[in-house]
Amino acid sequence: MNMESPVAESPEVLVERLAQAGRSAQRALALMSDVQKAKALKAAAAALRDDEPSILAANAKDLAAGEAKGLSGAMLDRLKLDSQRIAAIADAIDQVAGLADPVGEVIDRRERPNGLVLSRVRIPIGVIGIIYESRPNVTADAAALCLRSGNAVLLRGGSEALHSNRAIHAAMVRGLESAGVPSAAVQLVPTQSREVVGAMLTAAGLIDMIVPRGGKSLVARVQADARVPVLAHLDGICHTYVHGSADPDMARAIARNAKMRRTGICGAMETLLLDAKFPASVALVRDLLDTGCELRGDARSRALDARIVPASEEDWDTEYLDAILSVAVVDGLDAALEHIATHSSHHTDAIVTSDDAVAERFLAEVDSAIVMVNASSQFADGGEFGLGAEIGIATGRLHARGPVALEGLTTYKWLVRGTGQTRP
Amino acid sequence: MNMESPVAESPEVLVERLAQAGRSAQRALALMSDVQKAKALKAAAAALRDDEPSILAANAKDLAAGEAKGLSGAMLDRLKLDSQRIAAIADAIDQVAGLADPVGEVIDRRERPNGLVLSRVRIPIGVIGIIYESRPNVTADAAALCLRSGNAVLLRGGSEALHSNRAIHAAMVRGLESAGVPSAAVQLVPTQSREVVGAMLTAAGLIDMIVPRGGKSLVARVQADARVPVLAHLDGICHTYVHGSADPDMARAIARNAKMRRTGICGAMETLLLDAKFPASVALVRDLLDTGCELRGDARSRALDARIVPASEEDWDTEYLDAILSVAVVDGLDAALEHIATHSSHHTDAIVTSDDAVAERFLAEVDSAIVMVNASSQFADGGEFGLGAEIGIATGRLHARGPVALEGLTTYKWLVRGTGQTRP
């Protein structure tokens, strides 16, 4: 007990209170139909559009405070809302409303010789905590995805976006409540105290899953401290292996796209493995160098172009998220598989080849969440996978891997229907 | 670094070495066919039968040491092997060999408008750590299930069973190796140091999942200390609610069976909720009292039979694992749902009713891994569910819930087959 401020709730008590309110809202939500949930989300999107003036006013406060605090231009840009961005946020909610509801899906059904009928059905996970940084759109995106899959959500955003998050949250809750969803289904943590994050991370049994959304240091801290299961999205050290049989034009186009389309996303290629037998390596690396990419290579790759600088041992384990690429020349599929097994972060790895047997071995033997043949690793994305919006790309091995959308926000229970069976 | 004994490996280094050996064995295992893995397990079962004399000799050492240490009769019985028990262990391995291999199953397949073909296929989890107590059969059971699903396993059994575990492990490995499985696929931790358990629990990235098998205190310690995901099996505070419409004979038979068939299993009923409208409550509680069950009741249930003693608040949250049962009289389905939501451990909860609408509400609203209608909660078991042998009954909400067999020992990866697609 804190004797100095007996009135204030401790972070643990606060989190317990929020989580319990969330749990009881979630029980109500779990019983709502697909149609009701979709309607509620559409009402939330409409309320968000209606509240544009107050959201912009709140955002202006955050921007002013951010400038006063000396936030970087990039940070301020992430924080900034305008009419177009608010419209995009509302549209994204409408899109989530339009996704198919995974809850209630029967995954498995079996009848036992004794007449018991077993079915495994998808249900919401329960209470999900989202811990995120300065982008205010996460408030709406994450809330919409959790709600669409029947979960209650506790949102804890960055302090830079405090006023914006509050305004977005207030609009959404008004819309949701107008459609019969209890307000505690979407709660914004009312304080920016850092201790509250710690209390969320250790609230086992109260919060069922934590999803960190933000940079590596945030995710790493959450993973290190959490006692609650975490759906974490860590490094994307993605490889593209260009096999000797690869079509040269295809390989060049894929390499350019995988690295340079957007360098800052987790599906961007970070290491290029060129087979010694691939005949167009010189042209391929020249493409990348000419578009302004820095190449850091092993001795053999440096022979391809004088502009390639030497790679250090660290480079093979680095996610640049920038116009930098490590390059190695390898002898055949086994050497490529070995390099990938040693250095991949198991996010997305790709091969370019025209040999089907080689492609199938690569698909079978690479142990990553996503394994691709003849495609750019930048397709690693829930939208591109046809899953709708994603809550994140999971790099853990359990529960969900790769792009995680609504289905990854569900779990299941077993229903057993009997006629009086007792166990012998 | 430990300067006092520079030769000895630290627990962390030992676990890292074992896990890495396991990882590379697992890569080989992941490529073995269903038939090969089944054959290897059959060879392991045969080797176990061949080694009966040496296993019995090892077990005699453990029993002698246990007696000298003053282990209880129940503990010694758990530890004891004889011809029949060794045969049962070997038969169980043969049974696991006969189960369908989940690895390679295509869970989902979708073709995108751009021609990318996506499939989600089941793969092994990787390296699984099993931490268990004195039953030597776990060595064989857990190894067989992990191996059948393509995982490598690190076994850390109780020190009481050290010699027995070593003998069983040696036999299995000899059999597996004869069929081409690398010995590091099944490793027994070579020391009983407690620090090694700690090192296993924190070996994130080296060990992919920990399965504790044993009593509550072991499981709780593992859950508290683990940084690696845990497939934990905690309390089974299972409820049976007898609705007013329940068939009296069915309700009596189910209540007797759910409580008294075996009182020590996690699926045993621990709380009975009798609807005030159920007409045969007096007979039902008398059945239980007459078979020697202690009943601890609320005021209303105590009016049913003078032998019912008062329940304390604690009783509603207690897993007795014994011939003791808490009993309450409730008014209708909503009161029963509320009691279950408050006190259930979310393992297995059941209703007895002849009203289909009530049954469906119970199935929908009870948030437990297993929800049953008109059946004894003692059916909560992988074998009874038709899943084959189980590695445990999971009480967590993510990855796997309820009885966990081979499928729960797998995860998935996404395969993306393209024809040169780059992302716009």
Describe the structure concisely.
The first copy, chain A, is α/β, with parallel strands linked by helices and 424 residues long. Helices cover 41% and strands 21% of the residues of chain A. In chain A, strand 3 (127-132), helix 6 and strand 4 form a beta-alpha-beta unit.
Describe the structure.
By secondary structure, the first copy, chain A, is an alpha/beta fold. The first copy, chain A, folds into two domains: 11-231 and 405-414, Aldehyde Dehydrogenase, Chain A, domain 1 (3-Layer(aba) Sandwich); 238-384, 3-Layer(aba) Sandwich (Aldehyde Dehydrogenase, Chain A, domain 2), CATH 3.40.309.10. Helices cover 41% and strands 21% of the residues of chain A. In chain A, the strands form four sheets. A seven-stranded parallel sheet of chain A has the order 10-9-11-8-7-12-13, sandwiched between helices. In chain A, a hairpin with a 5-residue loop joins strand 1 (106-111) and strand 2 (117-124). In chain A, helix 1 (11-30) crosses helix 8, helix 2 runs antiparallel to helix 5 and helix 3 packs antiparallel against helix 7 (162-178). Mean pLDDT of chain A is 94; it is low at 1-6. Chains A and B meet through helix 10, helix 14, strand 13 and strand 16 of A and helix 10, helix 14, strand 13 and strand 16 of B. Chains A, B: It comes from Novosphingobium rhizovicinum. Chains A, B: Belongs to the gamma-glutamyl phosphate reductase family. Chains A, B: Its EC number is 1.2.1.41.
